[in-house]
Structure formats: C-alpha cells, structure tokens
Design a protein that fits this description.
It is built from 1 helix and 5 strands, in the order H-E-E-E-E-E. The radius of gyration is 17 Å and the shape is globular. 20% of the residues are buried. A 5-stranded mixed beta barrel has the order 1-2-3-5-4. 15% of the residues lie in helices and 40% in strands. The protein has one helix spanning 5-19; strands spanning 30-38, 43-48, 59-65, 79-87, 90-98. It is of the alpha+beta class.
C-alpha cells in the first residue's frame, strides 16, 4: 500500500495535534500565589488551589514557565490566575495573569 504525500501530511498533523497541550480556553483557570520567581531557571513556585485537568490537589510546587517573559512581571506575594498543563512531560504554566 502506497501512502500519498497529502495522506502522510494529514497523519503527521494528527500526531502533532494529539501531542499538543490544550490551549487557553480549554484549560481551567486556577487561583494561586507566587512564592518564588527563579528567572534563571525559568520557573515559578506557586501556592495553588486544585488543578482539575492535572488531577492535582492544592499545594505549593515549582512549575516551568512556558514563556520566560511571564517571569519578568511576577513577584513573590502576587495573587495570580493561571493555567497549567503537561508540555513535553513537564507540568508547565502556559498562561498566567495577576488577579484583579
């Protein structure tokens, strides 16, 4: 059986889509408080409420930041709303904003 280039492209796109974490609107917004910002490591420590999509209870833990730019505007003590997902096997903050 011969696979055409278009069928191959569709198969590759399906694999990429399946491996891509859910984006923004599909992820729950979680409340938390920044306890540490480690810009050199690209990580945030957040005391947070439960994260339903990761089946995670409330706790304080270190997260990888998807974008280093988000670290520049956050400080310990900031109240935030964030979205987290597994990206390449690591639990990662994919969106964060200061709580209003």
């Amino acid at each position: 059986m011969r696979i055409t280039r278009s069928a191959q492209a569709i198969a590759i796109a399906a694999v990429i889509w399946a491996a891509t974490p859910a984006i923004g609107a599909e992820l729950p917004s979680v409340k938390g408080e920044i306890t540490k910002v480690d810009a050199s490591a690209g990580k945030l420590t957040i005391k947070h409420e439960p994260i339903p999509n990761l089946e995670m209870d409330a706790m304080t833990m270190v997260f990888k930041a998807a974008d280093a730019a988000m670290l520049a505007v956050l400080n310990p003590g900031d109240k935030v709303n964030f979205q987290a997902d597994k990206v390449n096997g690591q639990i990662t903050i994919v969106k964060v904003e200061k709580a209003k």
